[in-house]
## 1
Amino acid sequence: MPELPEAQQLAERFAGEILNAYIEDVIVHDPLIGENAARVRGQKIIDISRYGKAVYLQLSRDALIVLPSAHTRIYFSPQPLAIPDARITYRTSRSLLYLAEKSRAPRILYVNKDETPLPDIGVDPLTKRFNTAMFRRRLRTATSTIHDFLVKENIIAGIGSRYAKAILVQTELDPVAAANSLPRGKTKQLFWNIKRVLREAMNEQCAFTEQTAGIGEE
Amino acid sequence: MASPKKKKAAAVSTVSTAQNKALLKKRPPHSAIEKEQPPPPLVVVSSAFAGALSVSPIVSDFADHARELPDRYNETCLTLMERDPEWCFAYWDISDEDRSRHATDAQQLHIHMYRLLDSGNQDLKFIHADIEIACHYGSWYIMLGMPDNYFFGELGFHAANGTFIVLARSRVIHTARASFSDSRDDDWIPIDAFYETDTAHAVIASSGDSGRFSHVRHERFSSDSISFGRDTDIPGRPKPEDGKTNSSDAQV
C-alpha cells in the first residue's frame, strides 16, 4: 500500500496534470463509489496536497480525498481510454483522469465543505508539529510495540509497515520491543531516523512508486 | 568669466539635452521598436561626462518602455509574502477564463485570510479576516497583527446560496516572531560531535579561519578530555610560569 513518500509523489503528479483545472464531467462506473463523488462537477481544483497516505484535492467549494491502494491504477490521458476496471472518470478541462481499482473498497471520499469532517489522522512526521517533545510524550503513554506504534495512523500519519521496518532497522530496534520502554538515546535516534528515511525515500523518487501507486500513462 | 573648459562642458550639456529631446520626439511606436534590430545598447551616460568619454548619450527610455513588465499574466493566483511580523503583501489575478465561467464581473470578490494552528494541517483553520476587493488583479498590504503564526488566503466570491466559491488559494506563510523565542530546545547537537563532521571542516576551511585556531579546535575535540579553561595549550601562546599568573589573569 502506498505510504507517505508515494502519496507525496502521487500528489505532485496530480498537481502537474490537473491543478487549476475545472471538473467538467464525472462518470461513475461503479455505484459503490456513491453519487456524492459526482457532486464536484463544475468545481475548480485549486490545491492538491498530501493528507497522510492519501491525496487531497481541494476544490473551489468541496474536496476529494483519493485513497490509493496497492491495486489502484490512475491514468491521465487527453484522449478517452478503454479502461476495463475503471470505477470513476473525471473529465477536467486539461485531461481525463481515470481511477481503476480491482477491489470493491471505495477509494474516493467526497468531503462536503460544511458537513463532512476530515478523517482523523495523526501528526505529519515532516512538519514542525512532529517534534521530539511530542514524540517522547506519545511514546511514554503508548501500550503497544514500537512497530505498531509507528504504523498507527492516528499517532503518526503516513508510515506503513514497509517504512516502519526500514526505520527500525536503521535504529537497530526490535519491532516487538515495548514502545514505552525505549531509552532516551534510542528515542532521539528513532525520531531522526523517521524523518531521514522518509525524506530519503522521497528524494530517491520512490523506485517502487510505479508498482504501488499504479500511475498509468497513455 | 567662465573658463574655456567650463564653456565646452556647458556646450556639451546643451547639445546632449537637445539630442535627447529630438530623440524623444522621433520615438517610433511600440511595434516599430520591436521590429528594429538590433535594439539600442543599454548604456546611459550622463551628459556631463559625455564629452569626456566621447560617447554620445543614449536615451534608455526606448528599452525600458519596450520591455516593461505586464500588469497581469492572465493566471488565477493569490500570492502572499510576509513583510514583517504583523503585515504581509498580497497580489492576485483572475484569468479571463475564470471571469467568464463565474461571471465575476458582477460579483463582489473577497480575500479570506485564515490562521492555521499548524502549518501542515489546513483543517485546523480559523477565519482571520475577510477583505473585499474591487479589482480582478492588484496588490494589497494586509495587516495580520499576529506574529509567529501561520496564515493562508483564499480568493473567491460568495455564491447566491452564500457558499464561498474559491478561485485560488495561496501558500501558507509564517509571520516572524516579534519577541525572543520562548522555546527551550534541549536537542542541540553536541559541539564535539559537530566538529568531527565534514561539514564543520568545510565551514572552517571556507571561513578563512587561521590555521592556528583550526589546530586548536582539532586538538581540543580530537582528545578525549575537553577543556576550555586557561590550561588549554594554544600554540604560540606562552605558558604562564608555575605559581604565577599572566597579566590578563591578574587583571581578572
## 2
Amino acid sequence: MARAPFLRFGLFGLALGFVLSEAGFSDYAELHRMFTFQDLRLLLTFAGAVAVAMAGFSLLCRDDVLPARPIHRGTVPGGVLFGVGWALCGACPAIALVQIGEGRGAAVASAIGIGAGIWAAQALRRRWRWDLGSCG
Amino acid sequence: MSTAGYWPWWAGAAALGAITVGFWMAVRRPLGVTGVLARFVNLREEIEAERKDAALALADEAALAAALVAATRESFGDAMSPSLTPLPMPAVRRSGARPRLAAHALFLGGLVAGGLLSRLLRGGLASGPGLGDAYARVVCGGWRACAVLIAGGALVGFGTALAGGCSSGHGLFGCARLQPGSLVATASFFGAAVGVSLFLEGGL
C-alpha cells in the first residue's frame, strides 16, 4: 500500500499541538483543575472530542477497517502508571512536546523521562517476551 | 466559558475530534503519539527496518503478481488458466504501511511548533522555564521539580508503552470507536490521575 504523503504528518502534528495548547491541556493549572474536578472545561473538551470523533468515524469511515484495541495484561497496570505519572509531571507524551514548544523548559525533563520509560518498557518486553498486542 | 483565554470546551472538542478523524482519513494510520515516540527510542533498529522496507519496495508489484500466476500454472496446470488474472486489490480501506521515520519526525516537530505558534499568537512564550505557580504549589518547585518531572515522565513513558497507547491513541482514537482496550486504559489512567491529584491537593 502506498505511503501517505509526508507533509500531512507535519500538518497534523502542527494542528494537534496548536489545539492542545489553545485548549489549555499543556497548562498544569488547568490540568490540575480538571483532575480535581474544580473545573469541568477540559473534561468536557475531552469527552466532546471523543463524541465528535465517534460521529465522524461512523459517518465518514463506515467501510474502513480500523485497527482493534483489545484488552491485554498491560492495559490496566500501564494505564494506572501513566495516570500517576501524568498527575506528577503534568504531561502526556504529546503534551510534553507541546510544552517544550511553548517555552516551558522544564518539560525537557518530562520528555527525557518519557523516553527513558518507553526504553525501559521495551527492554523488559524483550527480556521476558511480553506480548502486549500493541502496535506502532 | 474559558479560563485564562483558553478555548471554550466545544471549540476544543470540535477541533480535537476533527483532527482524530481527519488524521485517519488523510494518512490511514492510527493516531497515537506514544507509538511514534517509541520508534525514535528504538532508532537504530528502526533505521535498519526502514532500509529493508526500501529494498522490498523496489520489487515491482505487477512482476510479483505475474510470478505468482506462473507458479500457480506450474502447480495446477492450464485447466483454469483463463481465469488466472490477478484480481484487483479489494477496495476496503485499512491501516497503511508505516510511514517513513522522517514523516513521523515531522509529526513530532509539528507538535512542538504547534505549541510555539499558539504562544506566539497570544503574545509570547510561557513566562519562566517552570510549569507555573500551580505546579510549585501542588507538587514542588525549584530543582526538586526537575527530579519529579523526570520520574513522572518515566512513569508516563513506561505506562503508555505497557498499555499500548496514551491519551491520543487510546483516549481519542480508541475510545471514539469504543475499543475495549482503549476504554479500560482510559478509565485506568484517568482514575489514577484523579486519585493522585486529589491526594496532592490534600483531598484524600
## 3
Amino acid sequence: MKLQSCNNCWFNGLQYGVLGLSVGYCSRHRKILNAPGETTCGWQLRKDLTLGRAVEVAELHQRHYAVEFVARIVDGMPRERDTSHNERDIQLLGRDPVAGVVLDHGELGATVESLAQLKAMPGSRAELAMLSLARGYVSHCVSRKGNWTSGLHLYWWSRQRLGDIPEIEVEDLHTMGAIQLSRQIDLTSWSLMMFRLTFIEDMIVHARQQGDPLGNISSLTEQAALALSTFNVHRLSVWLKTKAIPQLDARLPRGRYMAMARELQSQRERAEAR
Amino acid sequence: MTVRRRWKASKDPLYRGDARDCVRVPNPRADDSIVRHIMYFEGPGRETPYLSTSETYESADQFSDGAIWQTLVRVAGREGVGHIGRAELLTLMKGNGKGKAKWPSAFEVMQARRYVEQWAEHLLDFREVADSAQVVKKIFSKS
C-alpha cells in the first residue's frame, strides 16, 4: 500500500491496507476506484494518522495533487480506466452488502443513516467502512462550525466495541502481502483496533476544542504505543479494556451519554417542528 | 502464497519497486530520521538519505512505478552504502524509538514498525555516499 494512495484515505471506506475489497469507492468523488493502490487526489486524508497529523500531511499532499480528479500517484495525471461511475459497475459493486451501504453514504442526505446501517452489519469490513466514513463525517460537521456531538452515537458505538478483537476472515483480505496468513491477520486486526482508537481520539480532539470534559484525556494512541511494544492483539484488547475505557467512561459515562443523546433528539425534533 | 525460507543478507537480494527507467536518487544530506522516511510524511519529491527495499518481490511490486529493481547487501556495501536490516529496524522502533528511529510520536513509530514487518522492509543508507546518483546506477539492476 502506497501511504498516499486512495487505499489509505478516509473517503474510501472499502479498504485499509490488505483489508477490504479489490476495488475501492471514493465517497468524495463518488467513483469506483479500480486501482486504489496507485491513485490519489488532493483530498486525501490518511487513515493511518491521527487527526492533527493527517491534516498536516494533507496540506503538503495537496500541493502535488488536484482535488478535482483522481490521479495517478506517479505523475498526478488522471487515467480513464482508474475510476468508474458507470451504472452497471455501480450495480455490481452494490451487490456486496458493505459496498451497497457505502455507495448510499451521502446520497439524498443519508449520512448518519448509512453509518448506523454499517454499525449493525457483522464483520470487519463493515466496521472499517463505518470508522473510515465516520472520521470524514464528524470532521466535516465540525469544520462547518458544528458540534462535536454530531458524532456522539458514532463515538459510543466505537467505545462499546473498543476492546473487542475483530474477526477477520481470509475473504476479508484483498491481497496477502509477503507474510504468513496468521501474522497478516494479526497485524490487520491490530490496525483495525487502532483505527477505532484513532476515531475515538478524533472525537476527543473535537471535544477538547469545544471545551467538553472528554477532551481532557491525553492521546490514547500515544498511551497505547508506549504501553505495548508488540502487535499482540490480546494484549492490546486488555490494555483497551483496563486503561483506555476507564478514562473514557470517567469523562463520558453511560448516564451522560444518554442525557446528551436525549438532548440531541429534542433539538432535532424542535428543528423539524419549525 | 508460498512459505519462504529465512532471508539471508549474504546471498538473498533486496527488491525495490521504482520507475521503469531508473531508481530514485537519495540525498545523503537530507534529514535522516527513519520514522519520517518510512511514514512518508512529506509525500512526493521528499528528500531522504535512504532507499526502502524489501526481502520480497511481492512487497516491492506494491511500490513499483514500472519496474522492480534488485541489489545485494554486499554489492551496495562495496560502494559505501549502509544496510539497516528489517530485524534492526524492528528493534529500533519501540516506544519513542532509538537512534535514528527516535521520534516524538510513539504511535507513529509503531505504525512505521508495522509497515516494516508487513513489507519486510530494509533500508539502504546513503549518508556516507559521495555520488549517490552514480552509486544507485552501479548497485541496482532490473529484476
## 4
Amino acid sequence: MNDTRPVNLDLSTIKLPITAITSILTRISGVINFVSVGIMLYLLDMSLSSPQGFAEVKSLLDGPLVKLVVWGIVSVSIYHGLAGLKHLVGDFGYGETLEGGVLGSRIIIVLSVVLIALAGMWIW
Amino acid sequence: MVTAVTNLGRSGLYDWLVQRVSGVILLAWFSIIGTYIGMNGDMSHAQWQAFFGQTWMQVLSVAAVLSIGVHAWIGLWCVLTDYLTTRMIGANGNVIRGIASAVCGVTLFTYMIWGLQIVWVG
C-alpha cells in the first residue's frame, strides 16, 4: 500500500452533512450504551434479587442525579434503536438515495427528540 | 493491510447479519421492558420478578444478554479499527487497539456471564 498518498482527516475543514452527523451519533450512542450496560445490569440485578433490593432501586431512582443518568441512558438507547431501524429499512432497499438518506436522518432526529422528551416526562 | 482476526465472524457479511439479528432482539427486549415499566409504574417486587420469571421472557432475556455481547463486539470492533490505528494515533496504534479490544472483550464477557446469572439463574 502506498503510504505517501495525501489524506485529509482534518475534520474542521469538512462540513458534516446531516447523514454524517446521525451516523457518528450512532457510533457515539453505541459506545455509551456499551458502558451503560454495567449500570443497567447493576440495577436489574438489585431489583430482582429481593424485595429489599427492589425498594432500594426505587429509592435510588428518586434521586435527581440517578434520574438524570437513567434518562441519559434511555435517551441514548432510543436514538441508537431508531438509527438501527433506519439501517434495517436501508437493508430492505428503501431510502438509499442521497435524498432518502437525508430524509431518514431527519426522521430519526425528530422521532428521537419526541421519544426522549416523553421518556423525560415519564421519569420526572 | 489489516487482516481480519479480531472481528466476530472473520467475514463482513456474517458480522453484518449477526449485527442485524442481535439488534432486532435487543430492540424487542428493550421495547417490551420499557412498555411494561411504563404501564406498571407502581408495581411490586413480586410482580417484577414474575414478569422476568415467565418462560418466554427468560428465553428472550437470555437471547438479549448474548446479543449484547456479540452486538457490542461487532460495533466496538468497527469503532476501534477506524480510530485506534497507526494512521490515526501513530506507531503504537495497533498495540493500543489490541489493549482496548482486550478491555472491551473482558468487559463484554463479564456482562454476559453476569447477565445470564440475573435473567436465567435468577
